[in-house]
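Notes from hallway chat w/ T.B., transcribed later so I don't forget. T.B. wanted the structure written out for a chain they're using in a teaching module, and asked if we could keep both sequence and structure tokens in one place. Agreed to drop them here.
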Amino acid sequence: MNWIRRNSPTREELLASRFVKPFAHRVAHSHLWRFTRTSVRRGTALGLFVGIFFLIPGVQILGVALLALPFRANIPIGAAMTFLSNPVTTPLILAASVWLGNVLFGMHTNMAGLYALYERSASLSDWWQWFTANAGPALLGGLGGLFVISAASAVVGYILASVIWDNWIRLRWRRKVRRARDQRLEASTSDTAAG
């Protein structure tokens, strides 16, 4: 939680953004910044979906902030989850999305055609024909694969956030009960020793 608080934008930083200013009165609402069971789960899922589907760094956090409104999700958690797609993981995400799009939608790019067009200095119309016949469908397949990966990550993140939150709360309660029991035992032993 400390790492998330350190690396997420503060409420003031987010509200100062020129993209968020028109919605600042709504984004500043306190329920979007509280750490509750439902807001953390929703923030995790929203942050993973937006962070993976929109691979543009500036758009991710602003997208989470604006989409947190209708979903009533926690903005700091959502913003922190967008950092899972970073310069190291982005090529892996893109490669997996193209592969998954090809598998799911059966669209493949003819890379030999791309190299042939490049080597013979093809005209713009040849490039356009190659793009619409080969690259465009594969790109759409990759976009479909990216959507599937984003949605699956959001579902898994939601479930993991639920499990982690429940275990964290259970652990806190056990510590509280143990502390109270230890204090009662200490008080009873001191009363017995005094009497």
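Follow-up for T.B.: The mean pLDDT is 81. Might be a good example for the class.
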